[in-house]
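Protocol step 4 of 5: obtain the predicted structure for the target chain.
Materials: sequence only (see below). No template structures provided, no constraints applied. The aim of this step is simply to have a reference model before the mutagenesis design in step 5. Sequence pasted as it appears in the construct record:
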Amino acid sequence: MRRLNSLGVCALGLALVAGCSSFGGGTATGAAAAGAGYEINAAYQMKELDKDYKAGKITQAEYEARKSQIQKGSIIQGKF
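Step 4 output (C-alpha cells):
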C-alpha cells in the first residue's frame, strides 16, 4: 500500500510538471507584470517623497536617504 501511494505521488508530480510546462509563457508574463507593479509603486513613492521635500515636511538628509532606499528596491535604478 505504501508503495502504491509513493507511485501515485510520483505520477501526480510528473503530471503537474508536464501540465505546467505549457504555461511557461504565462509565468514569464506574470513575472513581467509583477516587475512593472514594483516600478509603478517606486515611481509613486518618489512622487510622494518629492512632494514632502518641497513642502518642507522632511529634511534633505531624510530625502536623500529615502530616495536611496527606493532606488535600491527598483529594477531600473537610474530612472529616479
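Step 4 remarks: Residues 7 and 13 are 10 Å apart (CA to CA). The radius of gyration is 23 Å.
Proceed to step 5.
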